[in-house]
Design goal:
Order of helices and strands: HHEHEHEHEHEEEEEHEEHHEEEHHHEHH
Shape: globular
Structural class: alpha/beta
Distance between the termini: 28 Å
Radius of gyration: 22 Å
Bound molecules: ligand T4K
């Protein structure tokens, strides 16, 4: 007999809300020596010693010849596109966070939306060639939820049409593909270090690339184009990471292996138990991937589960489980993009289907195994009582 769900009058599973994520933060003991040094020296930003050290350590971790930090991932990506001089149209995915198409908009580029693979949720390379026009200058692909894109096919298409490939790797820090860091693929990769990411500097981001000219351009663009007191070489902006962010990064980078290990344990436990419930589908992680377990995403299959994603969402929120619909709505449905020819729903059937079914479940280091077990139990109880819940939710 399954427990009574909160939506039917049962006791909510969590008195204190359980969030989708909580950041890894340094302890006071870890911070203290850094902070006292920072406050004593009073060098707070503008390429200070901690930024320089953090960039060195990032380069080593990401196995990237060059790595530039930024105040957030969005500006990192926006300036990368500017630095590469992309223009006209760029092919991208509609199943992503708003930052992805918005950075194109801010570069006066039209996003061209391409449908996704219904299993991996990544841009489907099989549709790309049909979207290439004389105005196309690049492909902006997202390793969605940290799951690597089909880099081989994407880069083959790009090479044969003279296009750049930029990866929005906001979710993919710590991922490896074919035994190499995910940062080794494409012309550049952007990582977000936002508080909600598996590795954070509160806000922050970085771009990894192998082109020294692009790296220099990014350094110029993030600091007003200033090379020297009397030398302004470019129309840059202020997109610099500060010393405190770098300190967070230096401390958290030491914990990344442990972070991924803890997440893997919770992720595996979720999967093992959720598999027993009908109507739950999982993202297919690309072969030859060493995954970072950034997100635990499920698809709710209405017929078998008994409830829609939106009904399930309501039930889980009633239980104090703050699930999220990452990523709904699709970017192609935003008022600013829905008039584009590539945004038509009939052209994006898989993206529309996946976006209407997905739910991200809580996953973070501090979570206990018993929290995972409780969430799975709640999902089972919602499935078990689906008929009654449907009636309750739709009664007038
Ligand atoms: N590309 C992609 C594919 C992205 O997903 C993102 C960002 C970007 C580019 C841009 O990178 P950044 O410029 O952000 O570096 C969050 C994040 O704000 C956003 O960074 C992230 N993607 C996106 C997937 O998630 P929201 O609106 O869902 O965040 P919010 O404020 O609702 O937070 C979610 C939960 O996290 C909270 O319920 C509790 C927890 N939380 C959040 C914050 C901010 C904390 O525990 N502490 C915190 O400080 O967008």
């Amino acid at each position: 007999m399954a427990r009574k769900p909160a939506v039917l009058g049962g006791k909510p599973a969590f008195n204190n809300k359980i969030y989708i994520t909580r950041p890894v933060v340094p302890t006071m003991n870890e911070l203290r020596p850094f902070l006292s040094d920072l406050l004593r020296r009073k060098w707070l930003t503008n390429d200070g010693p901690y930024i320089q050290r953090f960039e060195r350590e990032l380069r080593a971790y990401l196995e990237a010849p060059y790595c530039a930090t930024f105040c957030n991932g969005t500006l990192a990506l926006q300036l990368t596109i500017q630095g590469m001089k992309l223009s006209g149209e760029v092919i991208t995915t509609p199943f992503t966070f708003p930052a992805t198409p918005h950075v194109l908009y801010w570069n006066n580029i039209t996003p061209v939306f391409c449908d996704i693979d219904p299993e991996t949720y990544n841009i489907d390379h099989r549709h790309i060639e049909s979207l290439i026009s004389p105005r196309t200058s690049g492909i902006l692909a997202v390793h969605i939820f940290g799951n690597p894109c089909n880099t081989e096919e994407l880069e083959k298409i790009a090479r044969s049409h003279g296009l750049k490939v930029i990866y929005d790797a906001a979710h993919a820090f710590g991922v490896r593909l074919n035994g190499k860091s995910i940062a080794s693929y494409g012309d550049a990769s952007m990582f977000s270090f936002h508080a909600t990411k598996i590795f954070n500097t509160m806000e922050g981001g970085a771009v990894a690339c192998s082109d020294g000219h692009l790296y220099q351009k990014l350094r110029d663009l993030r600091n007003f184009g200033i090379r020297g007191e009397e030398e302004i070489v470019d129309t840059g902006i202020n997109a610099k990471m500060n010393e405190l962010q770098a300190i967070f990064g230096l401390i958290n980078l030491k914990k990344i292996d442990e972070t991924i290990k803890k997440r893997k344990n919770l992720f595996t436990r979720y999967l093992m138990n959720l598999r027993k419930i009908p109507g739950i589908k999982f993202q297919k992680i690309t072969d030859k991937t060493s995954y970072n377990y950034a997100y635990l995403v499920i698809e709710i299959l209405h017929e078998e589960f008994g409830l829609t994603r939106d009904e399930t969402f309501i039930c889980l929120r009633e239980e104090g489980i703050i699930v999220r619909k990452y990523f709904y709505p699709l970017c192609s449905d935003y008022p600013c993009y829905r008039g584009l020819p590539s945004a038509k729903r009939e052209l994006l059937p898989n993206a529309n289907m996946v976006s209407s079914r997905v739910l991200s479940l809580p996953l973070y280091c501090e979570m206990k195994e018993k929290d995972v077990d409780r969430i799975v139990e709640v999902i089972f109880s919602i499935h078990y009582h689906a008929g009654k819940i449907k009636k309750k939710l739709h009664q007038v």
